Amino acid sequence: MNKEHEQEIKEQFRKQAAGFSNELLTLNQEDLLTWIVDSLDLDNGMTV
Q1: What is the mean pLDDT of the chain?
Q2: Which residues contact 21 (CB under 8 A, 6 or more apart)?
Q3: Which of 12, 19, 23, 32 is 20 to 30 A from 2, comparing alpha carbons?
Q4: CA–CA separation, 8 vs 40, rounded Å?
Q5: How confident is the model at residue 9 (pLDDT cuts 50, 70, 90)?
Q6: Cα separation, 38 vs 18, whole angstroms
Q7: Is this model's pTM higher than 0.85 or not?
Q8: Is residue 48 part of a domain?
Q9: How many CA atoms lie within 13 A of 31 on its CB side?
Q10: Is residue 8 part of a domain?
């Protein structure tokens, strides 16, 4: 990944970060996140 692309990703993350605490977001629903992670076909050495 080049530096410009990396910087763009960081900038977009900064713009969105304030909304991450919204309890209505999927990001904040632990049961749903657990289901998603459990559904992933991970090799033994992989983690999420």
Answers
A1: 86
A2: 28
A3: 19
A4: 28
A5: very high
A6: 28
A7: no
A8: yes
A9: 2
A10: no
